[in-house]
Protein: Antirepressor protein C-terminal domain-containing protein
Amino acid sequence: MKKARDLKLKPGEHDSNSAAEVLGVSKLKLLKTLREVGFLQTDTKHGMAGDRHNLPRDGIKRLGWAYTQKLTFGDGPNRERNREYYIVIFTRRGFLEVKKIMQDPDGYEMPEMPPIDLQTQITPAGNVRKRTIKQRAEAAHRSYLKDLKNIGIEIDGSVADN
Structure:
């Protein structure tokens, strides 16, 4: 018997295995249908699945319907971590959409995806907003001018009268 993965999911979230089980379809049929409607990516090269295969599209992630989780496995006596891979996790809202898709895949229309925010970047370390290069430069410039003013130099370069 195969050992189940311990994914530590929040209530209402599902990986593809549990989603297929709840919906009463095979995992392969679920993933194939979700790729066909555009919920998941298709990443194949020379007949082999690539790193992004069966992972949610960026628009789906921005809608908050799904996200990816990194897993590792290894073999040998010490169970070395020699391979990392990602799986799709459906959020509660995303799972409701997956249900709608599986009820009528041909009639389902994907909603309009939210635009990409080019000013904000998401880090894998915890969704921390990064400032753009221009914003960082402007903040540094303001800080520099403030420091100059504190030591008695005006913004235009002249010495301030104290």
Summary: The chain is about 35% helix and 15% strand.
